[in-house]
């Protein structure tokens, strides 16, 4: 169906964005998109960290309860 995006396609997309947003808005638009992607990647990594922290807490409480007995 859809092939990979090559250089000609990227050039057409850039020209359309230049026409729609204008040259003064493109740097701001690029910065916003970059920050959004960075935030998305950070959010995708956080669920992996949270279960590890919770399992470490459970391990520590289990060890503490074993010591108390």
Short description:
With 69 residues, this protein is mainly α.
Description:
The protein is about 85% helix and about 0% strand. The protein has a domain at about 20-60. It has helices at about 5-20, 25-69. It contains 2 helices and no strands.
| Main beta sheet strand tally, sense and closure | none
Principal-axis shape equals elongated
Uncertain segments are: none
Q: Specify the helix fraction band.
A: over 70%
Rg is 24 Å
Q: How much of the sequence is in beta strands? A: under 5%
The tally of helices reads 2
Output the helix-strand order.
HH
How many DSSP-defined strands? 0
Q: How confident is the prediction overall: mean pLDDT?
A: 80
Name the assembly state: single chain
Specify the structural class. Answer: mainly alpha
Kindly report how far apart the N and C termini lie.
64 Å
What topology emerges from the helices and strands here?
Blueprint: H1 7-21, H2 26-68
Features:
mainly alpha, 2 helices, 0% strand, 84% helix, 69 residues
